[in-house]
Amino acid sequence: MRIRTLLQASLALTTVMVLGLAVANWSISARLAEISIAEDRVQSCSRDISDLLVLTQEYAMYSEERSVQQWKTLHSAIVKKLEASVHDVIPPPADTLKAAQTLPEIFQQLITTVSNSSDLQNRQRNLLLNQLHSGSQVLADSVLSWGIALDEHRNKIEQLSRIQSIVIPAMMLLILMLLSFLLHRRLLRPLAQLGKAVTAVAKGDLTVRSATASNDEFGELSRTFDAMAIDLVAEMQREIMVRKLAEEKLFESENRFRLINDSIQDQIYSYDLSNRFTFANRPLCENLGRKEDEVIGRTYWEFGFPEELCRKWDEMHRQAYVTGSKVEIVSTPMPDGTVLHFEVNLSVIYDSGGEVIGLAGVNRNITDRKRAEEEKLALEQQFQQTQKLESLGVLAGGIAHDFNNILAIIVGYCGLTKMDYEDAEKHIPEIEKAAERAAALCRQMLAYAGKASLTQTQVNTPMLIDEMVSMLKTTIKQNVVIKPELGTDIPFIMGDASQIRQVVMNLIINAAEAIGDADGEIDVKLAKAEIKTGQSEKDHLGMIIPAGRYICFEVTDNGCGMDEDTRRKIFEPFYTTKFTGRGLGMSAVLGIIKAHNGALQLESRLGHGTVFKVYLPVQLSKSETEEAHQKAVSAVWQGSGTILLAEDEVQVKSIAIALLENLGFSVLDAANGKEALELYQKNAADITLVVTDMGMPVMNGYELFYKLKQLDPQLPIIISSGFGEGDIVSKIPLEAMAGIINKPYSFDRLREVLRVVVERTE
Question: Using CA atoms, how far apart are residues 449 and 587, in angstroms rounded to an integer?
């Protein structure tokens, strides 16, 4: 018999016995439950019969109608219980139900006799009572015998259950013992033999055989194992041959790999986790001046490199382990004093299990390439310097042209004043206008450089543009029509109104010149704009415009448009398509926009017109009422105390002293920073504040500023300079200065700055 069949038969027999035991237990439990129900009925009937006798006697004595109804109800319950037990496992005796059914007739007769009180009726009533007692007693005896029969039946079933609980487990134990014997004989013994054979084969003894004569599964398994051992011998012989061939090919491959690595000029190597070399090709060994066996197993710390360089390599290796790879340029000093530059490529090495086991590296000598790049950079810098000089020449020519015109006006009116002093009052305003033009030209140059100092005021942009459009309509050619479209509810901005006028004027005049002699239109628009975070709105250079609230000023013309070269050069200083020497033009426009933290967009195609869009940020500003109040206060303001004035230009210093004394101050003046510092050290207790120029000999204004702050950090210092505000703020924090006043300044401007500083420090 096969082991599988034996196991299936044992399992089936065990299953049948378990099911039989379960069915028998269920049957016994069900029979005992039925007996328990019948016993409950017996007890209930016995109690009801006793109560029936009590009710009969009670009625005979008191003749109450209530007793009659209770008697009938109780009797009906007894009959129903007996009828329900007819089909039980042990039914009540046959005469029990009959005895119960005769009692109502006798009880009815008793009811009849109770209503009469004659002697005859009394005797008959007693007779009926005796009959009821006798019938009830018979009924009680019959129920009692029924209960005894149930007890006997319960005892028999319980005895049968005890016998079953002993016999069936004994049979199952016997079957298990028999099954264990068969399994030991048919399963464990052959399994032990097979295990010995497997152990011997595992130790290398392929001559062991485990075949048995049985035809069961173990017989098939042992024969299969023997066949496998025979095949394994043949396979091992084939594998030995293949391994020999593979070792020969591997040897050839390693030789070829080494020849290739040694022929490459790059240094190829690998490290273990301790930064010890596990491989190094010939160029690396030659660079180290060692043989291969002197390099393998050692770290770069052991080859005499500078400690700083070795620590740099350690840090590179740590970064490579974190990121998986690392590329960096490393400069390495050689023993002969030269410095070589290497491009180092590091990669992490993993084993078959994915664990990090080291680093592989390739060092490429880029010394020649780096030298060539440095030479190229030097040539590019020379070329850029040449371009700067050329641009500076153009810039200087343009500035000289404009300044010469301005100086011609000033000199001319001065000459007229000398000729006739009575006309001085008429000539001085013209001289002031020319001086203001010179100051405006300086502001344009600073705007071009993005360093313009703004006269921050509240600007009503729609009114400003409307005024400029009205003025320009009378100056441009009649063939050009300006169509303004100014939006409503445009917020005021903080800025320099004169510079914004210059932007508007330049853009509209350029648009009119682009139209030329043909009929054309210029659309001038002003609207609110908001750039939200994440929007990709870009300026003319492709830079993203910062998010925020803006006003957008747009000038569109249908003129000749611009080609790519013109669009690229339009913001260069003094570039023009008309004639040379016209001024700063669009470069100044761009500088003004930058100084206002704005942005510019340009769209143009040759023959299709041009669109300029100017974005100026909306900022919180003071109300006009507040500004007017401040101006009124400033107009009558007078100061007191001593001011230290540092100014190297004699005439400028003389004018400043006169203005300061006119405002009520005493003035200590110095020609440079060193003199000013000495004066302060002698008169520190009397000096209220300091006004200093920036560009001075011996000690400039920046050095003076910080030395004075070291002596008294709370000392208010006002900067007076012709440099752009951007230059000053880049060297001195804005919050460290008490104020800035840009040259040339008027008396009103000087008074306002001094008033703000003095009131702030009081």
Answer: 9
| Cβ atoms of 525 and 553 closer than 8 Å | yes
Within 8 A by CB and 6+ apart from 10, the residues are 175, 179, 182
Q: What angle do helix axes 94-114 and 65-84 make, rounded to 10 degrees?
A: 170
- Confirm if 612 and 561 have CB atoms less than 8 A apart: no
Instruction: Please tell me the distance from the alpha carbon of residue 237 to that of residue 246, in angstroms, as a whole number.
Output: 14
Q: What tokens appear for 73 in the block?
A: 């109800």
ω into residue 491 within 30 of 0, thus cis? no
Q: How many CB atoms lie within 10 A of CB 233?
A: 11
pLDDT of residue 683: 92
Q: Are 93 and 146 in contact (CB under 8 A)?
A: yes
User: Where do the H-state alpha helices sit in 516-604?
Assistant: 564-569, 585-595
In this prediction the pTM is 0.37
Cα–Cα distance for residue pair 442/366, rounded to 1 Å: 49
String of b and e for 619-644 (b: at least 16 CB within 10 Å)?
A: bebeeeeeeeeeeeebeebebeeebb
Parallel/antiparallel/unpaired status of strands 687-692 and 642-646: parallel
**Cα–Cα distance for residue pair 403/409, rounded to 1 Å:** 10
DSSP output for 15-51: HHHHHHHHHHHHHHHHHHHHHHHHHHHHHHHHHHHHH
The number of residues in the chain equals: 762
Whole-number average pLDDT of the chain: 78
Neighbours of 448 (CB within 10 A): 25
Q: CB neighbours of 172 closer than 8 A, spacing ≥ 6?
A: 14, 17, 18
pLDDT at 630: 53
Q: Spell out a b/e string for 387-420, using b for 16 or more CB atoms within 10 Å of the CB, else e.
A: eeeeeeebbeebbeebeeebeebbeebeeebeee
The answer to whether residue 532 scores a pLDDT higher than 50 is yes
pLDDT, tens only, 610-629: 999 999 998 754 444 455 45
Tell whether the torsion through CA atoms of 62, 66, 68 and 73 is positive or negative.
negative
The values of phi and psi at residue 364, to 5°, are -110, 125
Which is it for the CA torsion 221, 223, 224, 230, positive or negative? positive
Q: Is 17 exposed, middle or buried (0-12, 13-18, 19+ CB in 10 A)?
A: middle
Angstrom distance (rounded) from CA 406 to CA 433: 9
Q: How far apart, in whole angstroms, are the C-alpha atoms of residue 719 and residue 740?
A: 5
Structure tokens at 731: 């060297």
- Residue 210, C-beta contacts closer than 8 angstroms, at least 6 positions apart: 193, 194, 196, 197, 198, 222, 225, 226
- Mean pLDDT within 88-95: 75
Q: Token pair of 619, please?
A: 């900022």
| Predicted pLDDT at 580 | 35
**Closest of 485, 394, 458 to residue 621, by C-alpha:** 458
Q: Which two three-digit tokens encode residue 403?
A: 């300044």
First to last CA, the chain: 119
Please determine, for residue 582, whether its predicted confidence score (pLDDT) is greater than 50: no
Residue with tokens 């040379």: 580
CB 340 within 8 A of CB 370: no
Identify the pLDDT of residue 299: 87
* Confidence at residue 188, expressed as pLDDT on a 0 to 100 scale: 64
Distance CA 428, CA 362 (A): 78
Taking Cα atoms as reference points, which of 332, 311, 315, 327 lies closest to residue 361?
A: 327
User: What does the angle CA 569 – CA 575 – CA 580 come to, to the nearest 5 degrees?
Assistant: 155
